[in-house]
Amino acid sequence: MSDVSEEIEDQALPLDGWHRALGARMVSFAGYHMPIQYEGIIAEHLWTRTHAGLFDVSHMGQLTISGEGADVALEALLPGDIKGIAPGRIRYSLLLADNGGILDDLMVTRLPSGELYVVVNGATKYDDIAHMHEHLPEEVTLNHMDEHALLALQGPEAVTALKRILPGVEVMTFMTAGAFDWDGVPLWISRSGYTGEDGFEISVPAERAVDLAERLTAEPEVKPIGLGARDSLRLEAGLPLYGHDLDPETTPIMADLGFALPKRRREEGGFPGAERILIEREQGPVQKRLGLLIEGRQPVREGGVVLDGEGNAVGRITSGGFSPSLERPIAMAYMPPSLGPTVQLEQRGKIFQATVTPMPFVPHRYHR
Amino acid sequence: MTLYFTKDHEWISVEGGSATVGITDYAQAQLGDVVFVEVPPAGTQVSKGKEAAVVESVKAASDVYAPVSGEVTEGNAALEADPALVNSSPEGDGWFFKLTLSDPGELDGLMDAAAYKAFVDGL
Fold it and tell me: Does the beta-carbon distance from A228 to B59 stay under 8 Å?
């Protein structure tokens, strides 16, 4: 064939055929074929807010980091308190470049064995692995669990459905995790998610992923939900998406993720970009991630521009769309924190009025 | 009344010198949930193949092109309050605008229903 292409073909994930059999519309995402929607984004979004949605997030990278001093070694790459994570506890953290720019956001759990279980974004996982290989010492072992799928069950009825299958999950609280046995299949279950709702993320051996997805969707509370609703749900929850709201040009302070800088690490420093980040924390960032409610019905999306009183471009929209729960357009922007509360936006030559508003747009309902 | 279709997935229903324009059922299914529609007000001059309206789904914004040139006589005001009409009735209540044709010859080359169906089946 004369058609020489440099592009790498999208890969199929363990649930690929299952999604297609359910009539999902598949799109290319993070190098994989992924379901963007089944019956429709708004219906799926509202179902998750009222019942329970099952999301296939197997594109995400699941890693284990083990060996003597693994936690101390990881602390050299991110600002989290990794040493202080007790077994079965989860922390949100940020992989940082030397200048303090964000390379990825991730979740770190300490397993009962003492090893660290790390979940990173799908689009960045190979870069993350390369970065960790380069920076972690010899005695620390990095393992990519690419034989595991990851399912997220999210929504106020997630616990009702899951405890019927796996009694005991209901006692876990937000940001804790544990091992469960499902008819001989080992599962690692975290009470966490990316929708703002209560819910679970379930790591399952890839060869049993279809069985588990079938079992979960057999519960009356549970429907499969695509990436489209995953994006609108996380936007309402005020949660940033890597590659859009976070990137190497943004820092934890600009991104309003100061909670990921615990006291001990702020006092000790010793994480990439510590000097810049700690000064920025003291002085306040020039640009900050803020939430916007947009007037009218037309969404202002990523790439939209924030204007100051004189009409100068002073900020940018990094995520924007229609909120199915609020039935109005919402957005996240990087802009000077002093601007507002009302601001003007520009998209494709048209001016929009918006109001800076605290995030989340829709309250979190975690099980604490 | 004669119905024509474009490769950009608009339909145009022509009766004498006037016509009604909308997007096809295939187009609405591809867009998904429609959350905003901007239609041209009466008096707007539209040109064949040029942007005439905007339709936004949860996922993305898309331009709707004028299938023929002419002067808009009415935009569908119902879409402002209920953009989901485009999903529920794309070739009925979800029409976008009506216009007076300036050059009926522009209809030549548009597809009929059978040709459009064959076009969509080939996508």
Answer: yes
**pLDDT single digits (tens) A162-209:** 999 999 999 999 999 999 999 999 999 999 999 999 999 999 999 999
Domains contained in chain A, CATH given: 286-357 (2.40.30.110)
Encode pLDDT of A155-170 as tens digits. 999 999 999 999 999 9
Segment A267-316, tens digit of pLDDT: 999 999 999 999 999 999 999 999 999 999 999 999 999 999 999 999 99
The answer to whether B38 faces chain A, any CB pair under 8 Å, is: yes
CB–CB contact B38 A298 (8 Å): yes
Q: What domains are defined for chain B?
A: 2-121 (2.40.50.100)
Chain A residue nearest residue B57, CA to CA? A322
Give long-range contacts, CB 8 A cutoff, 24+ apart: B62-67: B62/B31, B64/B8, B64/B10, B64/B21, B64/B23, B64/B96, B65/B6, B65/B8, B65/B10, B66/B21, B66/B99, B67/B4, B67/B6, B67/B8, B67/B10, B67/B12, B67/B21, B67/B106, B67/B110
Q: Which of A27, A298, A319 to mutate to test the interface with B (most CBs of B within 10 A)?
A: A298
What residues does B54 pair with on adjacent strands?
A: B38, B63
pTM of the model: 0.95
State which residue of chain B sits closest to A322, comparing Cα positions: B58
Indicate whether A144 pLDDT > 60.
Answer: yes
Chain B residue with Cα closest to A300: B61
Residues of A whose CB is below 8 A from B32: 37, 40-41, 228
Q: What ipTM goes with this model?
A: 0.90
State the pLDDT at residue B112.
Answer: 97
